[in-house]
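Following up on my earlier thread - several people asked me to post the actual chain instead of describing it. Fair enough. Here it is, all 83 residues.
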Amino acid sequence: MNDKPDDKSTNAPKPEASHGPCLCQAVGPLLTEFLRRIGPPEEARQHFDSARIEFLKGLRSLLDAKIERVARRSAKGEKIPVE
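Reply from S.P.:
Thanks for posting it. Predicted structure:
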């Protein structure tokens, strides 16, 4: 006769039971489907994707130019006379 409850008690709440139902109530998949249906047609989506890529390429070009200017500035040396 062991009066102590053991570590693996069957009365302990399960992790699923302690959290309650999901707050979104499965709205995520419904919202995704809704947005897919009201979104632009495939041809327009392709144009938007291409525009996004071109915009990012433009940003990359600006960054590359800035990196080049900073690298050129720091490449200049300073003459120090040695005796």
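The helical segments are 15-19, 27-38, 42-75. That should answer part of your original question.
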